[in-house]
Amino acid sequence: MGASGRIEAFLEMMAVERGASAHTLDAYRRDLDDAAAAIDGDLDQADAETVRDYLDSVAGRGLAATTQARKLSALRQFFRFLYTENIRTDDPTGTLASPRKDRPLPKTMTENETGRLIERAATEARDPEQAPNGEAQALRLHALVELLYATGLRVTELVGLPASVARRDERFFVVRGKGNKERMVPLGSGAKRAVAAWLSYRDKNPALAKSRFLFPADSDTGFLPRQVFARELKGLAARAGIASEKISPHVLRHAFASHLLANGADLRAVQQLLGHADISTTQIYTHVLEERLVRLVNEHHPLAVG
User: Which residues are tagged catalytic?
Assistant: First the structure.
């Protein structure tokens, strides 16, 4: 039985014993036929070096890491089948490492887009007639947006802030985040003014003033649901001329981190501000650092070519 016959036997086993779907079987067939065509000789006789060379050629085609990993998985299953059927006495894929999958870069916003978003929120807060849902929502939304971009809080941390945060005339406040851990976050002047305006309105409304939360709501938690804020934020983005599908509270948190790093902040400092327990979580932003370092060398190194 040649390589094609072994592949057919493997696919039959996958269908009968594993219950693999037609889609899965087609994918296995394509990947194994591709390997068989690329390898000089019978696929079922390939050694580890030959399989490694094939996978290197797959990577050389520029295929995504996920595609490379899928092809390796098909080969692993195939050679495991040959081993369990006593057709081979070894598995040539046993020492091969899976291709490293790149972590997707987080969605973010440009500084220009963030500025337009905040300016639109400020305009509506100053002139509620331009806001679709009146003064209360305009003031609250302005405070939320300014706070989020100034602090990089998680959305659950933001909407659940106690009112006491806004009553302190300090440059920093303490927030309790994941794992019940506390951290200090900055409160810039723009955010302080927006929060003060909202707090003034809030304190004049008896239904709101009695709550211990900065952004009270008639909800199970007693504060503004994050889904409501996310919906209002998308509406604000649309009114600011920004595609609403690219905006969310989490995107604004990413913008906070990305813009800090792009303007010279230290990765460790950003880790502390975001409340990441491990620096590896913050390292999704290293592409920003890399771009800044390349620009720094190109602009300031005496041997850089313009």
Answer: 154, 178, 250, 253, 276, 285
